[in-house]
């Protein structure tokens, strides 16, 4: 048998290494693609993407931040980040994952997504950053967005760009910025580095990162389209408030949370006074305009945790999590006064139309223990306000 020369042996070893790299790349892409099909919810998809970038069975970067384009404000906003809190923490995490032989599927179970997607201290430190996308801006992220291709930022360039809005918070020695695209349009960026291990970012790292980014961009676009469809199916077309179906589903969820955590929850039901007379006098187009203006007042008056819904016709409902009856009454009165003082419609041939509402409040307490009880109690309180003279707020009877 002919003996292989040293050069031939080296060539074989190089081919073996190349084959192993290719197998690893295919394995990563297969697992990431499989994982991204687990959910269409945007937060789930973002977590899966970042886990794929940072997991030892994925790209293996130490830290990763995902920013999405806000098309309304024309800026980039951080949406999620994955990072250990320290080098010691990183070693513990990676050591555990390796010893437990965890795969990507283990790291993206639903409960882990809910537990980890907002807890990163890195995310907390950068969540309020907004990066304008003006072409004349010199910041690194805006440049990468307009360039539309990956950018590796060296230590020298980082030292030269210390005033960059990202680098003021995101301390690093080397990083890569990877655009996420769908239909040749950038919809987000991923920032990744090896802050703790100080491992150099290689061309092989970038090659597979780009392939992952191509899948990620499409997954994000699909999730956003899915969210639009879901939102449309849950919103009222005239007022753009949550519709009756969403109200019933969300109220059930919030009552379950309130019962499990033993925290209060209240419900506001409100009805426009004399709305039939308004429609008969001015027509349904003016009536719809009034409903739209009411919806804007309700949105403006609600907290982030509240849910303003169109219950039906001229009747509205507001779910108030973490709110007792006294607090709910104060919120309801504030809304009632705003509507009473608001100048509705204001057309030249009509002028301002005075609108008032009758409001009822109920909370989980006493005999009010179920969703049906809560709705019934708030509804009865609302009619008590209406038959008691209108333009007032009433509490439910014990």
Brief sketch in words of this structure:
The protein is built from 14 helices and 13 strands. It is an alpha+beta fold.
The count of helical stretches stands at 14
Give the oligomer, counting copies of the same chain as homo and different chains as hetero. single chain
Low-confidence parts, pLDDT < 50 over ≥5 residues? 86-102, 110-115
> What value does the Rg take, in angstroms?
28 Å
| Main sheet properties | 6 strands, antiparallel
Shape: elongated
Please give the domain count: 2
The average pLDDT score comes to 84
| CATH class value of the largest domain | Alpha Beta
| N-C termini distance | 98 Å
Give the strand line-up of the largest sheet. 3-2-1-6-5-4
Helix- and strand-based class? alpha+beta
- Please give the CATH architecture of the largest domain: 2-Layer Sandwich
What share of the residues does DSSP label as strand, in percent?
Answer: 15-25%
Q: What percent of residues adopt helix (DSSP H or I)?
A: 40-55%
Instruction: Assign the CATH superfamily of the largest domain.
Output: GAF domain
Give a count of the beta strands, DSSP E runs of length 2 or more: 13
> Would you list the SSEs in sequence order as H and E?
HHEEHHHHEHEHEEHHEHHEEHEEEHE
CATH topology of the largest domain: Beta-Lactamase
């Amino acid at each position: 048998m002919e003996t292989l020369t040293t050069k031939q042996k080296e060539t074989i070893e190089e081919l073996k290494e190349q084959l192993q790299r290719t197998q690893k790349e295919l394995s990563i892409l297969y697992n990431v693609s499989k994982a991204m099909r687990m959910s269409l919810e945007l937060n789930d998809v973002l977590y899966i993407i970042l886990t794929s970038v940072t997991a030892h069975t994925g790209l293996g970067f130490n830290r990763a931040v995902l920013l999405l384009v806000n098309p309304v404000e024309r800026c980039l906003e951080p949406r999620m980040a994955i990072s250990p809190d320290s080098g010691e923490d990183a070693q513990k995490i990676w050591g555990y994952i390796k010893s437990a032989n965890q795969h990507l599927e283990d790291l993206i179970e639903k409960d882990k997504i809910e537990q980890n997607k907002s807890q990163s201290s890195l995310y907390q430190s950068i969540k309020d950053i907004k990066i304008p996308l003006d072409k004349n801006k010199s910041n690194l992220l805006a440049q990468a967005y307009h360039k539309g291709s990956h950018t590796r930022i060296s230590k020298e360039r980082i030292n030269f760009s210390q005033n960059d809005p990202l680098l003021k918070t995101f301390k690093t020695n080397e990083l890569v910025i990877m655009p996420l695209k769908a239909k040749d349009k950038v919809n987000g960026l991923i920032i990744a580095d090896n802050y703790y291990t100080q491992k150099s970012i290689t061309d092989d790292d970038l090659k597979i990162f780009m392939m992952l980014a191509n899948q990620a961009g499409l997954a994000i676009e699909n999730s956003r389209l899915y969210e639009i469809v879901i939102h449309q199916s849950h919103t009222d077309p005239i007022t753009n408030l949550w519709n009756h179906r969403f109200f019933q589903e969300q109220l059930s969820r919030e009552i379950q949370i309130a019962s499990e955590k033993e925290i209060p929850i209240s419900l506001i039901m409100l009805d426009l006074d004399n709305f039939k007379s308004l429609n008969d006098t001015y027509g349904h187009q003016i009536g719809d305009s009034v409903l739209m203006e009411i919806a804007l007042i309700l949105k403006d008056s609600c907290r982030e945790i509240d849910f303003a819904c169109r219950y039906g016709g001229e009747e509205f409902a507001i779910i108030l999590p973490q709110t007792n009856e006294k607090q709910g009454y104060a919120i309801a009165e504030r809304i009632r006064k705003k509507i009473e003082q608001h100048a509705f419609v204001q057309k030249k041939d009509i002028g301002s139309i005075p609108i008032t509402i009758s409001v009822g409040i109920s909370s989980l307490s006493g005999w009010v223990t179920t969703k049906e009880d809560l709705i019934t109690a708030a509804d009865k309180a609302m009619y008590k306000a209406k038959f008691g003279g209108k333009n007032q707020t009433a509490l439910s009877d014990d």
